[in-house]
Amino acid sequence: MPHQCTSCGRTFPDGSKEMLSGCPDCGGNKFQFKPAGATEDAGSGGETGRASGSAPEASDRTPPAPDDQPAPDDQPAPDDQPAPDDQPVPDDGAADPTPGTPADATPADSPPSDAPASADPSPETDGTEQIADRSDEDTAQASARSEVVSPDELDRASREVDAVDTPEPPADDETQPGIDALRDELNDQFESIRIVSPGQYELNLMELYDRQEYIISLQEDGRYVIEMPDAWGIQDE
Amino acid sequence: MGLLTNLRDSISRVTDGLFAADEPKRIGIYGPPNAGKTTLANRIARDWTGDAVGPESHIPHETRRARRKEGVEIERNGRTVTIDIVDTPGVTTKVDYKEFLDHDMEKDDAVRRSREATEGVAEAMHWLREDVDGVIYVLDSTTDPFTQVNTMLIGIIESQDLPALILANKTDLPGSDVQQIANAFPQHETIPLSALEGDNMDEVYTKIAEYFG
């Protein structure tokens, strides 16, 4: 269940195209990404029913077809994904924020009911550690389920990092292994435009060409936005 | 955006096909940033309509939205060819605001320009898929044409069976190497020109009429 609508909780399998026109159930266009191996969020389905208003309508319900995703040359192959064993298990939540962001900001926003699970290190096996780690992320994002990502938020997401002037991606690799792993996994699927840092973008031309919509990833864990080009238009002179 | 839109698009495509002979072809001017696409679009528009299409600049990504000039009538060999010109943002795989800082731009402006340029590339790719009947591919003949972007775009254009004219621009500059471009895309005809100086525009117009008329 790698993808979940943050408005109604509906889940989508890896590589699903069903959500590309917005959530078929509630029309939401904000999803969270859960890598394979993450625990199922049992309560997510009925947790919130607040639908978003600004999302595009559901349209095509294409069955999942993960294999037909184009694989651009410049994207990392799935084999390049770091193994779970390679990932340190941060105690303060997987969404280790960038410098300048309060380290406990994400967990503090989480619903209290999930807090004990988040705090539990669960050091039994590698897989369990990973699961505990991931549930931290999900809890953090659960607090934002009622919202729909707006262009303003896109902008803000960039500028928050901008304010502290994050140096270079290699520095991120040391502090945010989880985020990078998630980014890579998203890239493998369908990311069209990647925000490397504020004002720095990488574009997947084949994805942009192949898709009616285009997808912008945010810098936060597993959150991304699907943009529809209905506002586009050639300007007549 | 939904089923109705898709249906409308389908109908639109059918009707487009039925009346294609009567309507002017929509010709997209594509290429990497700073190849001279807008300079060419303005040259064509000024020569045949007296108007300009958009502002030109030596700073990359000056064009960040596709701009169209409709009903450009080009007369060649006693007949008139009418086309719509679409000047598109330069296509690239990376946009970095730092590139703009070298052009005396404030960081905030550079970041904003970078974001708009990124959206412009997305838009250009969108229009390439759906809204052009032919392509004028503009390359700066002073730079190496063997790039991922050029190879990918030419490949897409060929896969669409779109008529494509490759222009080796900036022949007025000392480092211009038209042959290098011709060698890079031997399957296409390469026309040298200087859109800025207006050099060899006669041949360009003849080829436009031939390819897109």
UniProtKB/TrEMBL annotation, chain A:
<feature type="compositionally biased region" description="Low complexity">
    <location>
        <begin position="88"/>
        <end position="108"/>
    </location>
</feature>
<protein>
    <submittedName>
        <fullName>Putative nucleic acid-binding Zn-ribbon protein</fullName>
    </submittedName>
</protein>
<dbReference type="InterPro" id="IPR018645">
    <property type="entry name" value="OapC-like"/>
</dbReference>
<feature type="compositionally biased region" description="Low complexity">
    <location>
        <begin position="115"/>
        <end position="125"/>
    </location>
</feature>
<feature type="compositionally biased region" description="Pro residues">
    <location>
        <begin position="63"/>
        <end position="87"/>
    </location>
</feature>
<feature type="compositionally biased region" description="Basic and acidic residues">
    <location>
        <begin position="153"/>
        <end position="162"/>
    </location>
</feature>
<feature type="region of interest" description="Disordered">
    <location>
        <begin position="1"/>
        <end position="178"/>
    </location>
</feature>
<dbReference type="Pfam" id="PF09845">
    <property type="entry name" value="OapC"/>
</dbReference>
TrEMBL record, chain B:
<dbReference type="InterPro" id="IPR005225">
    <property type="entry name" value="Small_GTP-bd"/>
</dbReference>
<dbReference type="GO" id="GO:0005525">
    <property type="term" value="F:GTP binding"/>
</dbReference>
<dbReference type="GO" id="GO:0005737">
    <property type="term" value="C:cytoplasm"/>
</dbReference>
<dbReference type="GO" id="GO:0030488">
    <property type="term" value="P:tRNA methylation"/>
</dbReference>
<dbReference type="InterPro" id="IPR027417">
    <property type="entry name" value="P-loop_NTPase"/>
</dbReference>
<protein>
    <submittedName>
        <fullName>Small GTP-binding protein</fullName>
    </submittedName>
</protein>
<feature type="domain" description="G">
    <location>
        <begin position="26"/>
        <end position="170"/>
    </location>
</feature>
<dbReference type="GO" id="GO:0002098">
    <property type="term" value="P:tRNA wobble uridine modification"/>
</dbReference>
<dbReference type="InterPro" id="IPR006073">
    <property type="entry name" value="GTP-bd"/>
</dbReference>
<dbReference type="Pfam" id="PF01926">
    <property type="entry name" value="MMR_HSR1"/>
</dbReference>
